[in-house]
Amino acid sequence: MKIAQIPPLMESVPPMLYGGTERIVSYLTEELINQGHEVTLFASGDSYTSAELVPCCARALRLSNVKDPLPYSLLQLDLVFRRAHEFDVLHFHNDCLHFPLMRNFAHKSVTTLHGRLDLPDLAPLFKQFNKMPVVSISSDQRRPLAANWVATVYHGLPRNLYSIKNQDEGDYLAFLGRICPDKGIVRAIEIARRTGQRLKIAAKVDKVDQCYFDETVSPLLAAPNVEFIGEIGENEKEAFLNGAKALIFPIEWPEPFGLVMIEAMACGTPVIAFPHGSVREVIDDGVSGFIVESVDEAAAAVAKVDNLDRRLVRKTFEHKFTSELMARNYIKVYERLLKRPNSSLGKAKPAPNLSLIEPFDRYRQPSRPGAE
């Protein structure tokens, strides 16, 4: 098949540092090529890929410090639109900005939704574009939103990307990802305090979360058993995760997938996670980690984590979360998509009922006396 992959432009493919969606697009692209498919990647110019690369901006937008990414995203979609006839499948990973432009290509397009879907403003959009095929990355992710779901495909990593370097227990707890309230960093620090374990934090701080970091998190980093490393790259993750007794995943939001969980599992490192979002689908409680309801339960799990066999943790990853399996599952999605009749998917819907939109006049200022 000829397949177009369309990721966000904020990070390169793969990303230099943090960037879960772009990392998955990279793994998927390379594995599709390994399995004999022809792939074109519409991404930033600093991406590194075996596919045909169509540069949609010179560098990843986050590294370019652009003020408004929207114009670049629209230029990307225009490039895809003008070349859409060349491909059997258009696979989008950039939310739903493309829906209006690509409505007539619904019969050959699919969109993986990588973000949270419990936002009320999404419902009317997906009701209007209810012919656009979408893929979830966990079953839980679907729960808040009615949409044209065609599959759930779990993320996957290359089988040989990480390996077990340490079959014995590690000597610290690890937190890996991003600093924000939803990720539960304060909980992680409290778990380390309760257990007396060292905690190493390898995480990025986005501009939007800088105030939270400065006011809430930074004072807690003064604890003698807490070490803030900052953002780390792909080549540093294996050693970081292998050296850990467990990955702490104390999330406080409906995590759509949680790539860091399977990164830890690929290193044989157990995960101690709170039961939000996809966690119960990713972690086999008592095998690849522990699912806990509170800080107290997490502290108790730390005491038990050395009883888990790190080789079984790794085998759980190999059974469920490799990029080879992910690509095969997406190929099944593509094949089912292409077997469906074009007429049922590719026909544009009528224009929306404008009576549902508040009239502009309601927001006009009252006329001044004597004004026209």
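The record above closes out task 2.4. Task 2.5 opens with a second protein, given below.
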Amino acid sequence: MNSITTGTFAADDSLQRLEQLAGISQRLLEKARALGASQAEVSCSEDRGMDVNVRLGEVETVESTHDRGIAVTVYFGQRKGSASTADLQESSLEATVAQACAIARHTEDDEAAGLADAALMARDFPDLDTWHPWTLEARHAVDLALACEAAGRDADARIANSDGASVATAQSLSVYANSHGFIGRERSSHHSIGCALIAGQGDGMQRDGWYSSAIARADLQDPEAIGRRAAERTVARLQPRSLPTGQVPVLFAAEVARSLVGHLLSAVSGGALYRRASFLLDSAGTQLFPDWFHMHEQPLLRHGLRSCAFDGEGVATRDSALVSGGVLQRYVLGSYSARRLGLQTTANAGGVHNLKVAANAGDLPSMLSGMGTGLLVTELMGQGVNGVTGDYSRGAGGFWIENGQIAWPVDGVTIAGNLKQMFAGIEAVGSDVDPRSHVSTGSILVGRMTVAGDD
């Protein structure tokens, strides 16, 4: 068993540390300008955290992290060079800028290279309530993890083993600055508690778990409730069956439904589009989903998991529809990919912010009732998705549904289709939103997919 310290994070000095990172950014921009760069940008980050893992009532690991990084990108006209360091000594910072400049001088012109347009830089920086540090002592973190695991192991006699429980807390500070005069500061926190359990014996063993994650400690589920939920999910998987091959309705539970949104985002991202490596080329303005389907990005949402007033290039973010009335309204672009496509950035350098899929149905029980008979998918395995053709084939586990009720657990099946047809075939989105992701969606019912099993 590891020894445990009783240390905590220091008193909140995040604003002072942000100012220090901002000062470093400004000095690096000045150095780049002095070395002849026509444009430059600097990203500085600092992360602190603690992660505790226990198993079978014993402490396995207690880890404290403190990482930082400085990345410098310079442009000489349309030639680009980048370098990075984790060392804040002045000599290292100077060497990093010099290295970025040396690289830029030896690269070829890229007509799409350069900072985002100065007119697009963010000017307003509202408080988005993303900073909720948790001054957690290591001993307390261990107690929480032990309580979580114990609640799960004690919940059902069929729980035979454990893969352990964990408690983690993290704080992140970042500064982005560029030679347009833009400087943006961001601070965020993230915490989680989770548990994974094993039920049954021998070849009949099944594993499952549950976790809670949030930007504030007050938003986390109680450790005991997490352990009990992990136990319920694990024993529910015992004695699974396969299925005969056929075409049936497939309901993606909320925790896996967001993967469908992820496939859409990959296909409409700038990198895939300008490389001509997407099944959704030239799809902006076309009907991809049913006409009731809506998907909206909310980067300025207070207390959102990925809220920010600016993207990774300093461009001001704004609420906007990605899909409205089933029609794809736009792509997901940073300035580089936008220039390659002859378009304008959508303020998505670094990804999307708080994407919400609107529900048109009720909770999971009502979704099951509406489906009647089909497959409820609670786990996906493998990476069988072809981003160029949209062909979809993944291993899956979950439950067979008859008469709107769970009939038995299912394992060892493959679900297959084509993402374009799957998107068009969505029949319902539930209100049972999984709050643990910046992609906010309930369960998603696809009217018909091929399910291949062993029976």
